[in-house]
Amino acid sequence: MGADSRPDKRLVVAGHGPAAHRLVEAVRERDTAGTWTITVIGEEPRTAYDRVALTTHLEGADLAYPAHDGAVTVRTGERVTGIDRAARTVATSAGSAVPYDALVLATGSAPFVPPVRGRDLPGVFVYRTIDDLDAIRAYARGRATGAVVGGGLLGLEAARAIQGLGLRSGVVEVAPWLMPRQLDEGGGAMLRRHIEALGMAVHAGTPMRALEAGEDGSVRRVVLEDGTALDAEVVVFSAGIRPRDELARGCGLPVGERGGVVVDASCRTEDPAVFAIGECALVGGTVYGLVGPCFSMAEVVADRLLSPASTAVFEGADMSTKLKLMGVDVASFGDPFAGPERGALGVTYTDPVAGVYKRLVVSDDARTLLGGVLVGDAEAYGTLRAHVGGGLPGAPEQMLFGGTEAAGGDLPGATVICSCNNVTAEGIRRTVAECSLTDVAGVKDRTRAGTSCGSCVPLVKRILDAELTAAGIEVSKAICEHFDYSRAELFDIVRAGRVGSFTQLVQEHGTGRGCDICKPAVASILASLGNGHILEGEQAALQDTNDHFLANLQKNGTYSVVPRVPGGEITPERLIVIGEVARDFGLYTKITGGQRIDLFGARVEQLPEIWRRLVEAGFESGHAYGKALRTVKSCVGSTWCRYGVQDSAAMAIRLELRYRGLRAPHKLKSAVSGCARECAEAQSKDFGVIATENGWNLYLAGNGGMRPRHADLFATDLAGEELITYIDRFLMFYIRTADRLQRTASWLESLDGGLDYLREVIVDDRLGICADLDAAMARHVASYSDEWRDTLEDPERLRRFVSFVNAPQTPDPSIAFEVERDQIKPLPLEVKR
């Protein structure tokens, strides 16, 4: 490139969308010698974000990609306005001249707006950026009707967003059916049935003539060529994209006849110092509009920049697509349009009652899968896409009816499993072996497979299981050697068989006497089903140390006492009681992140007397020791805060009192925020609630810890009772189906179908169990009783709270403290020795 002798070379990236972000990530990962200094210039006022999930911005989702490290300069709100190829500099809108040794054009595309009359009226928008969505949301307030021009992928996403803003929405598509680039006519027709069933009008096969204004001068109607007029106070154009190739044109680089910066297979233009990637690039005569091919181009350029000898090339891309549009599964893979002229046959299944359309395209001998379309049921997508170009994993009719599922070990190594991130079966297998991975989360972290759209996760798991089996590592669901069942299966056995004890369960369905794995797990199941006090009879022997004394064991053999403080709301009188108890028993006190007060340093024989005073003052167990609900954190909400839009404190208290004592596979945390400022940090909880002007947004399956995970937005603008119903069902379904010691975050990630499937189960009642889940929660609420109050009333239970059986009131002499900051702390072990 003429600058290889420089000790540090300057890489300039024009644009900061997903492709640019991936390019910079790839260069930084591989450039261990620090060869390149990188400057990214992006015209949006924010750094790169996930455009695939753009619509979720209206639901409050954070789309931002992780920030680049400090070695990368990112200039936001600034665009490249020109290129001087001779001087190797770019000019920017801020008046800067930025030198480069390599320039990568990643300017993306612009929405295509047909040249129709009225397209410049107020109320007409495009659907491309976060700013576009914010503008649409602001303008839509107080308006009733909307229309989207374009029935492709992004157009239908836009239509969903418009409907979500409360507008009566319609779709206008010039092609005869929806999603004409992905679906055949039958698939498009079935998709239309689904969308019209949601109350959305679809007008396909008729071009648009004009947009007409109302009396106020803003858009009011969409007029079609056949004279049909559609009411629309908001119009969104999403009728395709055009490559942003103006920089190439301006500096004399070749562009395609229909747009796009012409590049070779290495994504290099005719100028060896200039590359182009993403939606602005024309590779082999094609502009690619899906994220997977754009990421592949970024990887190719990163290789070329880091190694002059690199032979990396972009070899085209898998254009397969799977998504859920307005609750409808839609998938297209391979070549769905191949016909007899290409030696192809179509095998079709249609169920208009269930709303299912499936079509496989196979070779004329029915042995090779060429492509297909799935609408309404896309469960077989992962298996089918992986076999495109190869032999069918079963007879076509078996595949259509879901009778065959490929084993992960049967797939050729070159099979692309994750098309978003270009991860092959061989790449997954090699990473599993080299890194000794044993779970899907590890595979996702190391390979990126399943981290974008997520549709490949089931197939990733099958490959992982096949590799573990091949390595002699048994892939078993058994909870331990005493039961050949998973925790979820044991839960159903206990529930359906009305099993009342561990002894009965192991005698009827297991072997041996149990262990420290299955005993606490079964104890949790029995407690979840309301099978009496956890220290009652045989139950007491099943508990681990913390449950055994209804308190958390600390490092020096003492215990912590954590009374429940619902929503963090506490009266002065109760504060005084806590202070007096801490003073009288010499306890260390600390206010926790969960808005309650922990008392540390209690000896086991002191626990009953401490709790007697707390219970008399109206406190109850905070279950800090149990795999149960811990806290529901809250801000003060609309009662006190000038930004609050709902009474978050009242809702938090209501939730905590409803779910207190609920035993689960793992601890549960929650929070309620009174507005979008999110002071209670609800999006990092197992279930979090954020107030809106119209109700409550519900977030599920978040957690902090070593592997923090933001909760997923599950539903928006819920009324109070609706919110509680969904949380009830979420918790009960999690308790029934999760593995031992599995948090809600990893449970949801391992759930086939993920959040969409969860929504189908607890909203749409896909499994027909919602009434049962509701009844189970009702039983829990009705049967709740404070564990410490019950313990204090039972002399038999109190007998266990002693340090020495033969000297009940003798303190453990090994427990010692020192004073720091006017409070006790455990004496170091070396001092005690």
Percent of residues in beta strands? 15-25%
Structural class: alpha/beta
Number of helix segments?
26
Strand order of the largest sheet: 3-2-1-7-19
Distance between the termini: 69 Å
CA-based gyration radius: 31 Å
Query: What's the total count of β strands?
Result: 38
Poorly predicted residue ranges: 1-6, 403-407, 829-833
Global mean pLDDT: 87
Main β sheet profile: 5 strands, parallel
- Identify the overall geometry: globular
Percentage of residues in helical conformation = 25-40%
Describe this structure in words.
The chain is α/β, with parallel strands linked by helices and 833 residues long. Helix content is 30%, strand content 22%. It contains 26 helices and 38 strands. The strands form 11 sheets. The protein has a 5-stranded parallel β-sheet, with helices on one face. It has a 5-stranded parallel β-sheet with strand order 9-16-10-11-12, with helices on one face. Strands 21-22-25-24-23 form a 5-stranded antiparallel β-sheet. Helix 9 (425-435) packs across helix 11 (457-470) and helix 20 crosses helix 23 (770-783). It is globular, with a radius of gyration of 31 Å.
